[in-house]
Amino acid sequence: SLKTLEKMVDAAMAKDPEFEETKKLKAAVYFELESYHMRYVSQPDVAEYCTKRRRLLRDAKKDKSKKAAVDILDRSNASLHASIEKVNHLRQRLALRPPEHTFLDVLVAILRNIAMFTWITCAVPLCFAVALLRVLHPPLRKLGVKNGQLPLDLFQMYLAHTILAILGVTVRYKGLSRITKFTDGNGTIGMFSHSSNLDPFVVTAGPLAFKWVGKRQLFLVPVFGWIMSLYGHIAIDRKNLQSAKDAINNLVAGKIKRWNRSIAISPEGTRSRSGRLTDFKKGPFHLAHNAQMPVTPIYIEGAWALNPPGSKIIYPGNVLLEFLPTIEVGKSDGIED
Length: 337
Known about the structure:
The protein is 51% helix and 11% strand. The protein has 14 helices and seven strands.
């Protein structure tokens, strides 16, 4: 095991002071192994890890003073690579694969997608017309109308419900009791797993009225991007760090603090191509820390299979959206917390 190997190397170094360099070698190898377990298990392959480790051992073999420890490390190669093969085999078994569809399934899906795009095209003028009602939001708030009951909030929910219905996508919501405190106007930051183009519609059709945080490129798309801006959603320039920080600060000062809005954002930053959860970006956690708002993790299951990467068609089917227990954010909590 890795711990046993570490002890053996430590014992070898203890017998000879010249093994200080080998200690650094051992630490480097151990770091690579830890990185492998923490990162590469969730990635498509471990070729980069194997290449680094082979290069590390090859360079060490050139120095005879390191030979004893290198021999110990070398003897672990066979078992280590066998373990890697087992992990790769397990990953292949656990990997999500798009379901196979019959010709009739594809034909029905194509017809539904055509109907959906036709309906959206016809609804574009209505979307722009409803956007004008945004000026009524401040006086309606003074009259006691809460977030989620405002005209644009209701219309967006209607749009999402209609699109999902045309596509034949049925959503089952779980954990609704965990968000009842946010449906009466209190805000939360919803961090959702993102693996499909369906995800925004599935979340928007739910009981919470979110303002979305998305990459700036989406807001540059004609018509779609204009509507996103008119409806008060937030663009983030991920290529410009200062611009992204300013957008987050404005978001905290504006929609969150002033209007107590709930915000939806993907901590992964973009869609997962594999359907598995990928590494998180720090931006959403900076937002939660600056806003001092509770975080509601949102788990979406089934959307990836209905619209896998590379597919131009959205298939009918069932999706599960689960609101997980809320995470309270305190002033003393760091970003890593």
